[in-house]
């Protein structure tokens, strides 16, 4: 270590001296001595490392003290803020898993806030003055909307699949087509869930072709159910086939075993006007006679994270009696948001109230109109940042409709002085983070997933970015 570096490191004040300074006492008052002590140690270690790496310049004792206090203040302010933050999703992916999937409707937000801020009748029967069940809030609405006999809700669809398998097929065989042994986000695999549920996986057919005869030949006295899984995030095309729902239902009825269907996204609206033909509707499966279905609440339903289990009463009641149901059930906040979301469907107001459905219905023309209004405000930008409009596609995402896109208009940003990745980074690090996508050296902004009230925030962030380019 050279003398200059050694001198600089010796001039770094002790931890105790920093803690006793007048500037640090208010931080201790706002939190705790232990919390601030750990921050001081971290800041001092970082500064020592900067000196070692030659990043920090030679400084006087007072300069070093000022630098430490500045960095300590910045770190303190950062640490006492929530890490979970609101962002502007300008990617055009409607159900982005990394961004929390479906945003809630105003009605859901209002109901959730009211229930969160006060006591509620979560498990209390107001009419009879006795203990009640939290199931009724979603159950009554799902019965009306889906036509099912009974329904319960758990914390997500993975939990729903697990609970169904454990309740109806523990130590028994579950038949499933090899073409439906799917994996979705974060390494969630159907075979793994089956094993953990204590059900025995019995694969039938091949990856691309499964026949009704494959199921028939696999049924034995240990068979507890047939599980049909919608391949949410992929499609097998070409030389492929599988039995249709009616064929499987007839086989299950003749064999006295239940057919269970994991529908994934829980789509209750007709997507065919948008060119999406193969997204299953839970109501259709219930009407056809499927014993039990399950689907996510925060995908195409447009509600909070949850897993809906619905179907025939004898099976749903058996699932509810499983002791694991209590471990997987949802809290009052989820129930409040889900109840409000389902009420929008019951009143046929989903296209007016649920943000996801509204985004799907947005026309390219309406998006183009907003994009033009924004770009007019960019007219003052100089050559440092080029901006133009281009055609593109929004994706529904969330493991839904993988082969389909919604036609949209994109705002494209490009700079000769700043790479696309740096433009994306600076927008992402805005005071209100703006998340975009990068394609062919351009940053793309899709207003389909930007709430209209946030358009001004996008303009402000881009203008600030332009001003910062040297």
SS element count, helices: 20
- Share of helical residues: 40-55%
Summarize model confidence as the mean pLDDT.
Answer: 91
What is the total number of structural domains?
Answer: 3
Main beta sheet strand tally, sense and closure: 7 strands, mixed
Name of the CATH class of the largest domain: Alpha Beta
Strand content: 15-25%
Ends apart, CA distance between termini:
37 Å
Output the CATH homologous superfamily of the largest domain.
Type I PLP-dependent aspartate aminotransferase-like (Major domain)
Backbone shape? globular
Low-confidence stretches: none
Radius of gyration: 28 Å
CATH topology heading of the largest domain: Aspartate Aminotransferase, domain 2
Question: So, CATH architecture of the largest domain?
Answer: 3-Layer(aba) Sandwich
Provide the structure class: alpha/beta
Number of strands: 18
Explain what this protein looks like in three dimensions.
The chain has 20 helices and 18 strands. It has 470 residues and is α/β, with parallel strands linked by helices. It has 3 domains: 3-79, no CATH class; 88-95 and 360-468, Aspartate Aminotransferase, domain 1 (Alpha-Beta Complex), CATH 3.90.1150; 105-349, Type I PLP-dependent aspartate aminotransferase-like (Major domain) (Aspartate Aminotransferase, domain 2). A 7-stranded mixed beta sheet has the order 5-13-12-11-10-6-9, with helices on both faces. A 5-stranded mixed beta sheet has the order 2-14-15-18-17. Strands 1-16 form a two-stranded parallel ribbon. α4 (33-53) crosses α5 (61-79), α6 (106-117) runs antiparallel to α15 (332-346) and α18 (364-377) packs across α20. The longest helix has 21 residues, at 33-53.
């Amino acid at each position: 270590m050279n003398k200059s570096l050694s001198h600089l490191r010796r001039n770094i004040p002790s931890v105790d001296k920093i803690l006793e300074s007048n500037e640090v006492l208010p931080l201790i008052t706002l939190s705790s001595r232990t919390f601030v002590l750990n921050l001081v140690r971290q800041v001092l270690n970082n500064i020592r490392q900067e000196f070692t790496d030659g990043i920090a310049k030679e400084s006087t004792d007072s300069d070093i003290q000022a630098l430490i206090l500045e960095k300590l203040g910045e770190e303190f302010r950062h640490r006492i803020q929530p890490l979970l933050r609101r962002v502007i999703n300008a990617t055009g992916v409607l159900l982005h898993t990394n961004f929390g999937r479906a945003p809630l409707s105003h009605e859901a937000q209002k109901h959730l806030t009211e229930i969160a801020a006060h006591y509620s009748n979560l498990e209390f029967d107001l009419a009879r003055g006795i203990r009640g069940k939290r199931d009724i809030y979603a159950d009554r609405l799902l019965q009306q909307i889906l036509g099912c006999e009974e329904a319960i809700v758990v914390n997500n669809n993975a939990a729903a699949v697990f609970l169904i398998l454990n309740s109806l097929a523990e130590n028994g065989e579950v038949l499933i087509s090899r073409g439906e042994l799917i994996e979705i986000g974060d390494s969630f695999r159907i075979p793994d869930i089956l094993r953990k549920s204590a059900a025995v996986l019995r694969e039938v057919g091949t990856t691309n072709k499964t026949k009704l005869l494959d199921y028939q030949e696999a049924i034995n006295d240990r068979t507890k159910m047939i599980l049909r899984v919608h391949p949410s995030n992929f499609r097998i095309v070409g030389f492929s086939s599988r039995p249709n729902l009616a064929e499987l239902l007839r086989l299950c009825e003749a064999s006295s075993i239940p057919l269970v269907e994991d529908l994934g996204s829980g789509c209750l609206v007709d997507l065919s006007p948008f060119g999406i033909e193969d997204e299953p509707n839970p109501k259709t499966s219930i009407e056809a006679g499927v014993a039990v279905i399950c689907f996510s609440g925060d995908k195409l339903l447009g509600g909070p994270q949850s897993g809906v289990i619905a179907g025939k009463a004898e099976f749903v009641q058996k699932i509810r009696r499983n002791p694991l149901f209590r471990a997987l059930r949802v809290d009052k906040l989820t129930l409040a948001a889900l109840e409000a979301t389902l009420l929008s469907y019951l009143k046929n107001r989903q296209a007016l109230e649920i943000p996801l459905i509204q985004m799907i219905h947005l026309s390219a023309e309406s998006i183009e109109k907003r994009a033009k209004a924004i770009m007019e405000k960019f007219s003052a930008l100089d050559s440092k940042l080029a901006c133009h409009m281009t055609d593109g596609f929004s994706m529904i995402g969330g493991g839904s409709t993988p082969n389909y896109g919604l036609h949209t208009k994109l705002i494209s940003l490009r700079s000769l002085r700043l790479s696309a990745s740096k433009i994306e980074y600076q927008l992402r690090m805005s005071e209100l983070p703006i998340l975009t996508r990068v394609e062919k050296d351009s940053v793309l902004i899709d207003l389909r997933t930007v709430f209209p009230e946030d358009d001004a925030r996008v303009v402000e962030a881009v203008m600030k970015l332009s001003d910062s380019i040297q």
